Amino acid sequence: MEDTENGHRRYAQLGKPPCPVVSVARSPLKDPEDFLVGQSVVFSTEALMRGRGDIPHGRPALVIGFGKLGSSIARLLHAKGVQVTVHDIDPVRRTQALSQGFAVARDREAALAGAGLVLCATGALSLRGEDFPHLRNGAYVATVTSSEDELELDGLPEVYSRAVAGEHITRYQTTGHYFYLLNEGNAVNFLHGASVGPFIYLVQAEILAGIQMLSRGDLTPGMHEVSATDRAAIAATWLNSFNR
Fold first, then answer.
1. Between the CA of residue 96 and those of 27, 80, 102, 104, 106, what are the distances in Å?
2. pLDDT digits 0-9 by tens, 185-240
3. Residue 87, phi then psi, degrees to nearest 5
4. In 3D, which of 192, 197, 181, 177 has the Cα closest to residue 238?
5. pTM above 0.90, yes or no
6. How far is residue 122's CA from residue 64's CA, in Å, rounded to a whole number?
């Protein structure tokens, strides 16, 4: 079973996994969870910034990755009055961002230099070691996954020193340049539980349906998904319980 986009992508890169893999990572039943996780990322980022007496407002934000999580993050920041620029390697997603009213970065280095808040939501590598010196002085950096997935911290120039700048905030500094990393580069929303309420039951139910598929023992090696019929039954059951 696989329920993360990052994991799904890694299995897909194998070409054909040597065993059956049932993935719910791209299921429509996961869309509510992804949307709410994006909201929790913004909440936790703002909470940490406020702990230092700072706020997102007045700081142009750069959202790297405009998938399910990145688009949710961008929308909430925009709703809060934050100026948002989007960067994504996928030209289709860039057109989607433009159609939704977001600025789209044409120059990656310029976008990093202009952002006071950088939120990494690719599930892959967002910032390489050579990218960090381009960050605006005092910029905050947060991610939605783990530091090894989103950030190449090992590639950060050795001239940077680290110091605690607040609860779950690390200040990276060298002569003439500094930035802040939230939660050591790990998913910032995990600091506050990352709760998505009863919507998590939709994903858990689909995982159980996937386990049932695997238990039959007749799936061939490769990637598989839960059927649309089973997804509809899960959604109907959920609605009957939670939309009274």
1. 20, 20, 9, 10, 15
2. 999 998 887 778 899 999 999 999 999 999 999 999 999 999 999 999 999 999 99
3. -130, 130
4. 197
5. no
6. 7
